[in-house]
Design goal:
The protein has 10 helices and 2 strands. By secondary structure, it is mostly helical. It has a two-stranded antiparallel ribbon.
């Protein structure tokens, strides 16, 4: 009997559908990179749409991997690397080409700070996901997640497209806003999460109707809707922060 045959590793079969999560991650990456190209060509509205598409795909791949039981260490690393490009590098460059080339030095500093903050946020999230056996994973978010940070950072573009060039922020204001959003990502502030949200079955119809209304608003009045979503998200962060501060004071 040949010893080489005995020591040969067994080949594992997998269904083609189990490749879908990684394929979706790659499609999200292509969407983010194409957004940079559109920004270079001056098509900033399309750039924002592609970043939004990347965010939507990012919300699908992990859930699909769990459904198909195809979670892997490679898939997790791939997803994290795609997030850094799509929500760290891409929105920073889009904002740079859109509103900060008038002050290249200040604008580029803001780009670097925002991107590094996104990288640190993703690294902290990855470490938090690797909990010891028997421990529960954190239910909420600490700091703004990178997809939400990207959509927040693009707020100056929403404002200008919604109300015209007269309200276009100057380059230094865009830079300050980017640094502020980057600080939110690496902060220890609690931020909204829908992972643990549960509703009564009889209220499901209201959620469905609300989702349809939101989709219709995004298609009809995209810039105003995106700007309002940013404002609502910031208010939610402020409310959670105040609740957290009160609970800490009550403990002390």
């Amino acid at each position: 009997m040949n010893d080489d045959n005995q020591s040969a590793p067994r080949r594992r079969r997998m269904h083609l559908f189990q490749l879908l999560p990684n394929l979706i991650s790659m499609l999200a990456l292509c969407s983010g990179l194409t957004a940079i190209r559109m920004a270079v060509d001056g098509q900033f509205g399309l750039s924002v749409g592609l970043i939004g598409l990347a965010a939507a795909l990012d919300g699908i791949d992990g859930r699909l991997a769990r459904m198909l039981k195809s979670e892997s260490a490679i898939g997790a690393e791939l997803d994290s690397l795609c997030d850094l490009v799509n929500f760290g590098v891409t929105p920073a460059l889009v904002l740079y080409y859109w509103g900060m080339r008038a002050d290249t030095s200040l604008g580029w500093i803001a780009v670097l700070i925002y991107t590094v903050c996104c990288m640190l946020r993703l690294a902290r999230f990855n470490v938090g996901q690797k909990v010891a056996e028997g421990e529960e994973k954190p239910k909420g978010f600490v700091g703004v997640p990178s997809p939400a940070g990207a959509m927040l950072a693009l707020g100056p573009i929403y404002l200008t497209y919604a109300f015209g060039p007269d309200l276009r922020p100057p380059a230094f204001a865009v830079a300050i806003w980017m640094v502020f959003v980057g600080a939110l990502m690496i902060s220890r502030m609690p931020t909204p999460s829908f992972k643990g949200v549960r509703i009564y079955a009889e209220n499901a119809r209201f959620i469905l109707v609300g989702s349809v209304a939101l989709t219709a608003s995004l298609l009809t009045y995209p810039w105003v809707t995106l700007l309002l979503l940013d404002l609502v998200y910031l208010i939610a962060i402020l409310v959670l922060w105040r609740k957290s501060a009160r609970s800490l004071r009550s403990v002390v």
